[in-house]
Design a protein that fits this description.
This protein is 26% helix and 43% strand. The chain has 176 residues and is α+β, with helices and mostly antiparallel strands.
């Protein structure tokens, strides 16, 4: 989709971590005049993963060609695709922070996110980390008005079944 600012593009980069990946991607996009509007990057057990949205006058094909040298050695996988402008959340929800911690076991993410989805909630950001035997999940969720009270009860039930602790609270001003 193109507007006065250009095409909205999603760029993903994954592969073994190395120094300079973010700089290499950002420099290639800057040379094309692409403006980075949203991005997330993480390192997962030695593997790099980044997704970003940019606005560019160049097409997805041109941006992918400019990023091609980054994947020339076969280590990084780079993809670019057109995306539309940001759409409002489908549930018109209010932002909440959900955290789960406890002993690692199969199905924590599946069970907790299913309860959120069944309540009409939308997960907008999610991060998990395994530190020894301790599993930590932190998610930002948008919840329809009136849902948090009942959802807290459902999450407490799932937490008991999983043997973990769950906390749901309104997101503060520090969460975008």
């Amino acid at each position: 989709m193109t507007d006065v600012h250009g095409a909205e593009l999603a760029v993903t980069v994954i592969g073994p971590d190395r120094t300079g990946i973010v700089a290499d991607v950002a420099e290639a996009l800057a040379r094309l005049g692409a403006n980075l509007t949203d991005s997330t990057m993480t390192r997962l057990r030695g593997h790099f993963a980044m997704t970003l949205i940019c606005t560019a006058s160049a097409s997805a094909t041109e941006v992918e060609a400019a990023l091609l040298p980054l994947s020339a050695d076969g280590q990084l996988l780079v993809t670019v695709r057109d995306v539309g402008p940001d759409e409002p959340p489908h549930n018109g929800g209010l932002p909440y922070l959900l955290s789960v911690h406890g002993a690692d076991r199969l199905g924590i993410v599946a069970a907790v996110t299913r309860v959120v989805a069944d309540a009409g909630g939308n997960v907008t950001d999610l991060s998990t980390r395994l530190v020894g035997p301790l599993y930590l999940l932190v998610a930002e969720v948008d919840l329809p008005e009136g849902v948090p009270g009942e959802l807290t009860k459902r999450l407490a039930h799932v937490a008991d079944e999983l043997g973990v602790e769950v906390n749901l609270r309104p997101a503060g001003a520090d969460v975008l």
